[in-house]
Amino acid sequence: MQEESVQRVTQKIESIWARSDVGPEFQEALHLALPVFNSSSTGYENLTRWMILPNLCCQAAGGESQWADDITAAWLFFYVGAHIMDNVEDHDPPDDWWKSYGSGLAINIASVFYFSASIALQDLYKNERSKNVASDVISDFNQSFLVMCEGQHNDLLQERPTLDQYWEIAGAKSGTFFSLACRSGARLVMDDALRIEAFSKFGYHLGVLIQILDDLDDLDHENLFDLYGNRDRLYSTLPFVYTLEVSSREERENLLVAMNSKEIDEEMFSEIVRLMDKSGSGIYIFAEIERHRSKAMESLRRADPISPAKEMLTARLEGLGEI
User: Fold this and answer.
1) Where are the beta strands (DSSP E) in the chain?
2) Element (H, E) at 130
3) pLDDT above 90 coverage of the chain, percent
4) Mean pLDDT across the stretch 156-184?
5) How many angstroms from the chain centroid is the CA of residue 265?
6) Residue 91 CA to chain centroid, in angstroms?
7) Which single residue of 94, 106, 132, 227 has CA 20 to 30 Å from 198?
8) How far is Cα 180 from Cα 79, in angstroms, rounded to an integer?
9) Contacts of 169 (CB under 8 A, 6+ apart)
10) CATH superfamily name and code, 2-204+300-318
11) Contact, 227 vs 269, CB < 8 A?
């Protein structure tokens, strides 16, 4: 099912650009920015794993996977566009395709994806299965992205967020986005408010869980080189936020001294990790991973999904965040 859905969505994307008279050279640049067109790219497997969430939830609600292709295409465009904008705004290392061209080109490509998403959503009106709910779905997309933009705004404002602020931002950005994907797919099939809300909660906790795991990936030793040029990213990761909040004054000062050193070398990085371990951040994060996974599973049960999409959603959730 996944390969078929990915193929249909990529064809949908091609048709959107063809109808918009996008030139071949520009299309080639757009292809490079979308890992779904390049199975050898580093982001392909992760992207295709999650991009068909609207299809899966549509099928789990009792519909056909292909009914949600327009929503999936729109969600994918927003997914990649938001990733690009987030990288630029956070001064993260550039993706390979725009490394030599600079952030200006990256922002332009992200803008193209946002407008392409708008076209994909307008196509909901052309489909017999979706035209009656098109207005509601499009409104939901727009309102959700206002929430996400506010979350990004607060993220950029908070140099060192508190633990409460971390959870608010993670919920507003990642939680809202994945929640949107799941309830939009289900909305194509039914108007049962309780079940749609259950699909929505499943997506919310799934999104927050993915954000936590992204934070842990940022702290992986293999990514140490990236921290040299962008240590600010470390300030907003859950292990650091938790450690700064619960540690003693002396330990907080030691942590900040390590963070403010001219260079974060192997020794300094080991000291940062030691202080995080000492604070109990590992135990706390493991508990949060299990809590969000449990809540997501509970929400999925309340959604009363239909097989085989149920098994696929469950497998994705169970395989995520295992430590």
Assistant:
1) none
2) none
3) 65
4) 95
5) 30
6) 18
7) 132
8) 11
9) 151, 154, 155, 158, 161, 236
10) Farnesyl Diphosphate Synthase (1.10.600.10)
11) yes
- Secondary structure of residue 1 in the 3-state scheme: coil
pLDDT digits (tens, 9 = 90+) for 187-209: 999 999 999 999 999 999 999 99
Selection from 285, 180, 182, 197 nearest residue 242 by Cα = 285
Instruction: For the beta carbon of residue 267, count every other beta carbon within 10 angstroms.
Output: 10
Which residue carries 């099912």 as its tokens? 1
Please report, to the nearest 10 degrees, the dihedral formed by the alpha carbons of residues 175, 176, 179, 184 taken in order: -160
Asked if 27 and 37 count as a contact pair (C-beta separation under 8 A), the reply is no
Which H or E run includes 263? none
The contacts of residue 220 (CB under 8 Å, 6+ apart) are none
- Cβ(185)–Cβ(58) below 8 Å: yes
Q: What is the pTM of this model?
A: 0.93
Q: Which of 320, 62, 48, 53 is nearest to 183 (CA)?
A: 53
